[in-house]
Amino acid sequence: MNTLNFFAGVAIIIVGMFLLLAGPQVVMIPSVQTRVSALFVGEQFVVGDIWERSVQLDEGLVVNGTVAVTSALTGEPSEVSMLVMDDENYQKWVAHGSPTYVFQRDMTDGEGFSFSVPRVGVYHFVFDNTNSPVKKKVSMTVDAQRQVVVSLPDERLRYLAYALLAVGVLVTAVGILRKTQVPWA
């Protein structure tokens, strides 16, 4: 038995086992994930003149949604004005001032929308139907997406560990099978 090869192989196996068992927990890689949270799920309501709902939103969120609008009288597809604004601008809008909207568009049946939240605060989703004499049935589904950085274990270390284990077993086997030559013999 060649003790140098044998102990070198055992040392390589020990390092490989350490990397296999503890490596992914020690070495972490930052990764970006998208987390989705529902704001409104299948919310249905009738808009006479105005319908409003407020929700607390964080800066950097991306808000996505779909709106279905039909005439309450005939059931035919229709449209309604959708406004989204922060609380300060909502107070201006209520006082018939000139607010700044985060989102403003006439929404039709089955139309989607998306906007980014500029800062933390209460945001008001307003459906304005004052320009129409007919009430509107509205159904909306809205979610908020946030980009989050999480730390995930580095799985590449497992491949290195498997390679080290294979090399360690091979070197240990060579150490066991190889005969040491005695220099004086």
Describe the structure.
- The chain is an alpha+beta fold.
- It folds into 2 domains: 3-27 and 154-177; 31-150, Sandwich (Jelly Rolls).
- Helices cover 29% and strands 45% of the residues.
- It is built from 4 helices and 8 strands.
- The strands form 2 sheets. The chain has a 4-stranded antiparallel β-sheet. A 4-stranded antiparallel β-sheet has the order 2-7-4-5.
- Helix 1 runs antiparallel to helix 4.
- The chain is rod-shaped.
What is the strand and helix layout of this fold?
Elements: H1 3-21, H2 23-26, E1 28-47, E2 50-57, E3 62-71, E4 79-86, H3 87-94, E5 103-108, E6 111-116, E7 121-128, E8 136-153, H4 156-177
Antiparallel strand pairs: 1-8, 2-7, 3-6, 3-8, 4-5, 4-7
Structural class: alpha+beta
Number of strands: 8
CATH fold type of the largest domain:
Jelly Rolls
Going across the major beta sheet, what is the strand order? 1-8-3-6
Largest sheet: 4 strands, antiparallel
Task: Briefly summarize what is shown.
The chain is an alpha+beta fold. It has four helices and eight strands, in the order ααββββαββββα.
Characteristic terms for this protein:
2 domains, alpha+beta, Jelly Rolls, 185 residues, 4 helices
